[in-house]
Amino acid sequence: MKANAAQPEYVGPEERWRLLGVAIVQQAVADWRDATRNLNNPKKSSMEMNKTRNSVEHFLRSPLVELYSDLDGRTILRMLKEEYGGIM
Fold it and tell me: What are the start-end ranges of the H helices in the chain?
């Protein structure tokens, strides 16, 4: 073992849960973006894309987002919609 090798930083259980929560919210955002991009893709089902978007929007409006992270889901959703031209 090298003397200079960086040791992995210890992450306690609380931090692990926080990181997991943030990852869940990040995945929801990625799913919403993917579904929005693929709404008019003839190779994808627009019904399925709408279902995904609706599920993510429901999640972002729920109190679960704040339980999983210190983020405001409604603000995230507003920013996503602005990012995609103010779609509703």
Answer: 13-37, 46-61, 64-68, 73-83
